[in-house]
């Protein structure tokens, strides 16, 4: 019985393992097919954009060349007129009657002298490079936006800092993208939303979907990047993005990365090599991933949890450090 039971358990484990492998392979196949489709679509849109830019340049070139052609035709007409004037002048020079020469008013030396002044060739600056650049930038942005929509990832360009939550020892830039540690205290009003020290939330609330944002920081600074519930404590030790179960964060300090949640610290093996980081949040799946935007991009850690309420991107900045949300 024992051997039979062990055999059955072995078969169950083997069957479960096989099913898991099959699911992984299917998942990988779906992702590969999706990537192939995405890149086909990217190439198609890039080809269309290249043709659009080529047509725009050809149109501008045609306008400039047409302007030059019209000018050449005007000069040829002027040349014929001047040739006739020259012949007439020669005839006048052969005349012996000076009175008749003075009465003839068709010959104008001033007209000949001003010919060069009328030669107004179009400048190479007439090419509208700004229009070309704008078309290129807009086209590439549309391609990227299309990819993001296809992959159901929202690149949150609207993530800005909420001054109403910013601690008074943090300076916040006018564009609400930069937070930096301040030696002197700001005099913002003491409200229930405001953190007592070091921290600030984004005004962007996330309750569904997949989201992605990037930050840039001080090279040797001490900061934390993560998400937190809106009702996270604002005062004392429990408010810090480490000492509660309402926030999840990545910390960079002393050339090390750490993951913080509910007083539990996980030291990561990676050493910081870039000043730019990214966060990817899949709300329904309960996944918060952190990446270092080095070359190549490096996955640092993925937190797996369950989000039971709306979360906000949150940031903690310690002494002499700054953090900027990238567009």
TrEMBL record:
User: Which chain positions lie within coiled-coil regions?
Assistant: 65-92
Q: Which SMART domains match?
A: PRY (SM00589), SPRY (SM00449)
Keywords for this protein: Coiled coil, Metal-binding, Zinc, Zinc-finger
Upper classification of the source organism reads: Eukaryota, Metazoa, Chordata, Craniata, Vertebrata
> Where does the UniProt annotation place the signal sequence?
none
**Listed GO molecular functions?**
zinc ion binding
Q: Residue limits of the B30.2/SPRY domain?
A: 139-327
For this protein, the record's InterPro entries field holds: B30.2/SPRY, B30.2/SPRY_sf, Butyrophylin_SPRY, ConA-like_dom_sf, E3_ubiq-ligase_TRIM/RNF, PRY, SPRY_dom
Give the top-rank taxon of the lineage listed in the UniProt record for this protein. Answer: Eukaryota
Q: Which named protein is this?
A: B30.2/SPRY domain-containing protein
Q: Which GO terms describe its cellular component?
A: cytoplasm
């Amino acid at each position: 019985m024992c051997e039979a039971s062990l055999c059955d358990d072995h078969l169950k484990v083997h069957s479960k393992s096989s099913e898991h492998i099959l699911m992984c392979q299917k998942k990988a196949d779906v992702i590969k097919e999706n990537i192939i489709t995405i890149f086909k679509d990217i190439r198609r849109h890039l080809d269309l954009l290249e043709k659009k830019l080529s047509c725009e340049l050809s149109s501008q070139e045609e306008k400039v060349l047409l302007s030059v052609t019209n000018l050449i035709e005007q000069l040829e007409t002027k040349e014929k007129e001047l040739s006739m004037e020259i012949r007439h002048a020669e005839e006048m020079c052969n005349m012996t009657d000076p009175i008749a020469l003075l009465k003839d008013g068709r010959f104008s030396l001033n007209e000949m002298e001003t010919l060069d002044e009328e030669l107004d060739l179009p400048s190479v600056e007439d090419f509208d490079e700004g229009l070309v650049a704008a078309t290129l930038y807009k086209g590439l942005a549309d391609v990227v936006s299309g990819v993001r929509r296809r992959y159901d990832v929202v690149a949150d360009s609207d993530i800005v800092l909420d001054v109403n939550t910013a601690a008074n020892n943090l300076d916040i830039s006018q564009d609400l993208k930069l937070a930096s540690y301040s030696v002197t205290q700001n005099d913002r009003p003491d409200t229930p939303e405001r953190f007592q020290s070091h921290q600030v939330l984004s005004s962007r609330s996330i309750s569904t979907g997949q989201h992605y944002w990037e930050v840039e920081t001080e090279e040797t600074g001490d900061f934390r990047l993560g998400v937190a519930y809106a009702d996270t404590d604002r005062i004392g030790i429990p408010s810090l993005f480490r000492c509660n179960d309402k926030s999840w964060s990545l910390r960079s300090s002393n050339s090390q990365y750490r993951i913080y949640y509910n007083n539990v610290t996980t030291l990561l093996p990676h050493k910081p090599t870039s000043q730019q980081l990214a966060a990817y949040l899949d709300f329904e799946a309960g996944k918060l991933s952190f990446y270092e935007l080095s070359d190549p991009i490096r996955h640092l850690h993925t937190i797996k949890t369950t989000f039971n309420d709306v979360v906000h991107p949150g940031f903690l900045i310690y002494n002499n450090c700054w953090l900027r949300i990238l567009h």
